[in-house]
User: Which sequence fits this backbone?
C-alpha cells in the first residue's frame, strides 16, 4: 500500500455538477453539497458528510482513492479525487461506479453555510423594506381614527386582522399606547 497523501489537500466543500446553473430553479432545489474533513489522525482518513447525514470515514488505498474505513462495500464504489495538472490542487471528486455523480470543489463563499446566511439576511432585509410602508400606513389610519392614541403595531399584526372596525374578538397584536409625554 502506498503511503497516504496529505488528507488536508482533500478537505473542503464539493458541490454536485448536476444542477440548474442559470434559472430560478437553482434556488428552489440547490445543488447537493458534500463536506470533506480530515479524520484527525495521521492514517490518511477523511470524513465525508452529505445531505445532513452523519459523516462517514474513508481511508486512502491509493493516492486520491478512498474506500469506507469500516470495509463495507457500497454500490457507488470508491471515492476518487482528481487533481488539476497545473498545481496539483484537488478540483473535484467522483464516485467510481457512478461517474455521473461528480462533485466540483467550491470556495468557502459558495458553501451552504455561507449562502444560507446570505439568503436569510436578504429575506430579512426584503421583509423589512416591505413591512415598514405597511406599518406606516396602518399607523396613519389608526392615528386619524383614534385621535391622540397611538397604536404600536407588531409585525405579526400584518398577518392577522388589522381593521378595528371589523367584528370579532380583540386582536392581541395591536396594543394602544398613550401619546408621547403622558404618563398613562
Assistant:
Amino acid at each position: 500500500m502506498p503511503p497516504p497523501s496529505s488528507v488536508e489537500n482533500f478537505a473542503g466543500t464539493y458541490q454536485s455538477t448536476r444542477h440548474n446553473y442559470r434559472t430560478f430553479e437553482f434556488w428552489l432545489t440547490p445543488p447537493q453539497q458534500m463536506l470533506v474533513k480530515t479524520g484527525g489522525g495521521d492514517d490518511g482518513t477523511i470524513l465525508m458528510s452529505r445531505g445532513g447525514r452523519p459523516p462517514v470515514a474513508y481511508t486512502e488505498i491509493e493516492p486520491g482513492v478512498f474506500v469506507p474505513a469500516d470495509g463495507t462495500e457500497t454500490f457507488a464504489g470508491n471515492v476518487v479525487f482528481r487533481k488539476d495538472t497545473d498545481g496539483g490542487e484537488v478540483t473535484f471528486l467522483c464516485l467510481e461506479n457512478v461517474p455521473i455523480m461528480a462533485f466540483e470543489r467550491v470556495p468557502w463563499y459558495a458553501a451552504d453555510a455561507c449562502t444560507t446566511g446570505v439568503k436569510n439576511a436578504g429575506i430579512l432585509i426584503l421583509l423589512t423594506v416591505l413591512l415598514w410602508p405597511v406599518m406606516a400606513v396602518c399607523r396613519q389610519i389608526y392615528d386619524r381614527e383614534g385621535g391622540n392614541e397611538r397604536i404600536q403595531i407588531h409585525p405579526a399584526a400584518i398577518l392577522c386582522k388589522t381593521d378595528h372596525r371589523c367584528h370579532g374578538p380583540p386582536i392581541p397584536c395591536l396594543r394602544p399606547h398613550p401619546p408621547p409625554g403622558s404618563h398613562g
Q: What stands out?
A: The two ends are 82 Å apart (CA to CA).
